[in-house]
Amino acid sequence: MITRRDCLKYPALACVASTLQPGLLEALEGGNLITRAIPSSGEELPIVGLGSSATFSSVARSGDVSALQDVLRVLFENGGSVFDTAPGYGASEEVAGKIVQELDASQKVFWATKVNVARRGGGSADPAAARGQIERSFQRIGKDPIDLIQVHNLADIPTQLGILKELKDEGRVRYIGTTSTRTSRYPDLAQVMRAEPIDFIGVDYAVDNRESAEIILPLAQDRGIAVLAYVPFGRTRLWRRVTGRTVPEWATEFGAHSWAQFFIKYVAAHPAITAVTPATSKPKNMLDNLGAAVGELPDKTLLRRMEALVESLPPA
Length: 316
What we know:
Layout: H1 4-9, H2 24-29, E1 35-37, E2 44-46, E3 50-51, H3 54-60, H4 66-77, E4 82-84, H5 92-102, E5 110-115, H6 127-141, E6 146-151, H7 157-169, E7 173-180, H8 186-195, E8 200-204, H9 216-223, E9 226-230, H10 237-241, H11 259-268, E10 275-276, H12 283-290, H13 300-311
Parallel strand pairs: 3-4, 4-5, 5-6, 6-7, 7-8, 8-9, 9-10
Antiparallel strand pairs: 1-2
Helix pairs in contact: 4-12, 8-9
């Protein structure tokens, strides 16, 4: 929990609390984050986590990663756990692995990473290269078993998911799955969901990007597959659309006091979503994002109102 003492001890966290809505720190301190169960096990996860592409990845490539240490500290000390990364996200996995070990937070983090060594154009993956990439992830993360490894963007499912199934049988990976961030691949994703014993999928989902809710999310519910929701802000798209606008007063009905909470709560309200993983490199934003896991989630009527509001905005 971030306290006044923390703001003095960690300069990067200074004034974070004063910029957030009243009561958020107290709510987080109460430990009442909304959670969802992983269908295959019943294990509960907080509905808001952290992704490591975009800004997180950019800062990880820089010489000063102190801000990322503070972001991860905010996540763990305020009840969060889910951290999503990939070897393909530049230095994100390696840098975050070092930070988690420095924070002695290996038991607090639910670590989700990926594997993808398939050739461009859909070529077959080299099994030895895939195993090598996975072993490097173990070394970087410093956690065995790893909580979740997914095949990144459906790359050579027979080879790479086959390896993950072996690792799960060996007890080195707790959960396995696959991801898709391209709607054109949703038919392929659905086929894997129906045919393979996966625990998780990862897909894009946002208030103005709802294609996955047509087939993929209902199928996940039917098949008992957990879902990590990516880019709930549409990367920067939604931020551009709300530039200069204030959050509508009626959003307080479900506890949204910022646009970040508005967008995240929309995604988290879908019953198929297990956790939402927006990326950030700023401690203030991490704390604000966690606020979306506090209080209520919008009901169907409010969800339609949220959609209508966003649809009325100029396109990005």
